[in-house]
Amino acid sequence: MLKKNNEKITLGVIIGNRDFFPDRLVGECRSDLLEAFAKTGIKPIMLEESATKLGGVETYQEAQKCAALFRTFADEIMGILVVLPNFGDEKGVADTIKLAGLDVPVLVQAYPDDLNKLDVARRRDAWCGKISVCNNFYQYGIKFSLTTKHVVHPSDPGFLKDLSDFAATCRVVRGLKKVRIGAVGARPGAFNTVRYSEKILQRNGISVVTVDLSQILGHANKLSLADKTVVERMEKIKSYAPSGRTPHEKLVQIAKLDVALNSFMDEYALDATAIQCWTSLQQNYGCNVCTSMSIMSENMLPSACEVDVTGTLSMYAMQLASGSPSALVDWNNNYANDDEKCVLFHCGNWAKSFLPDIEISTAPILGTTIGEENTYGALAGRTPASPLTYGRISTDDPKGIIKAYIGEGALTDDELNTFGTRAVAKIPNLQRLMQFVCRNGFEHHVVMNASNTAGILKEALGNYMGWDVYHHNSAPDPLTVGNFN
């Protein structure tokens, strides 16, 4: 079972109203919404019924009241839900969002009319009103999301899924705008592929904190089993994964390194790390850092190897979308003659959630050049069948942009006789995807997550972050941001 991030989502709620439609529709709407929020675990911030006419928003004065309420909870509100039980007042809704100044995702919902109740007493016209509200958002420069169906009742299962997906989108956007990533060590000299632009990332709210690898190793070398923190980490490592044939002294080394890395993360309040693991760490310290990276990723603090900063950013984004850990992998091998399958592989730093047969081991490939005895700490394990969302975020320095690709497939139980952390993926139109990856200058690293969250990521990264996003195998979409589709 994958570990879940159960962070509660708080949404500001605007119930639109129009004076020549029945007021009772607004009151009924509030009751419908509370049921939907209870089912999806969302906390609403909305006007009391006594604050305006049944808590709806129509006039500029009511917009001011609602905006003031939202500003009071600005640190808590992650998104705004606009609900139209009738046509609604397009200016009142747009003014509320502008006056609140929250810069968060917005979802627009509108109620369906009952074909047998199109009289004056029950008529809604929300189908039409939604178009007017969205037109005003476009004029005001307000980014927004739409429900799958143009009009949908809050009790409809489709709306409940839309609401849950929107909450995940809010989580991704909020997380990416304040994420702090630690870059531990220099990029390995042979890995031009993981170059990235700190400046482009910073313009998007993504901070990178650098530290020389020697500082981390120096801290680790000063520690011993006499230190309580080392003993505690040893116990955590032993309970995390079977140690196999790993010598005791190597476990001590791994624990000391883990203490040093966690100290660095705590000092700078980091959300994720990218670590120089190839090959300075093995040559100058004598073990792999994979076990520590796996533990961090399992605990929702993703860690990528080879100082792949945008790789760990991709891990973090997928983690926010799904609420479960991600793993950085290589697009590594063909799978026999199957054009829609490939092997995903890495020396061994994947989160425990992906590895039911996890064991602390060595890195045989790396061991051929620097001695296998210097590679203890790599993990071994096979990922079983599960859903798959894959993708990659990258800075494109010549264009001065952030770009990404995402898609969905499946991890399979097909036979795979090799070492390290490994999986078999089945991806529709895989050959076309590989052509896209190669032609557009993406890295050989990709991120996997055991979920179906590509749509959420597309909305968050493309619509709200404004990045160029390619959604593999999605239907042609004229609303896609960027040049890929």
Automatic annotation (TrEMBL):
<dbReference type="GO" id="GO:0008736">
    <property type="term" value="F:L-fucose isomerase activity"/>
</dbReference>
<dbReference type="InterPro" id="IPR015888">
    <property type="entry name" value="Fuc_isomerase_C"/>
</dbReference>
<protein>
    <submittedName>
        <fullName>L-fucose/L-arabinose isomerase family protein</fullName>
    </submittedName>
</protein>
<dbReference type="Pfam" id="PF02952">
    <property type="entry name" value="Fucose_iso_C"/>
</dbReference>
<keyword id="KW-0119">Carbohydrate metabolism</keyword>
<feature type="domain" description="L-fucose isomerase C-terminal">
    <location>
        <begin position="344"/>
        <end position="471"/>
    </location>
</feature>
<dbReference type="GO" id="GO:0006004">
    <property type="term" value="P:fucose metabolic process"/>
</dbReference>
<dbReference type="GO" id="GO:0005737">
    <property type="term" value="C:cytoplasm"/>
</dbReference>
<keyword id="KW-0413">Isomerase</keyword>
<dbReference type="InterPro" id="IPR009015">
    <property type="entry name" value="Fucose_isomerase_N/cen_sf"/>
</dbReference>
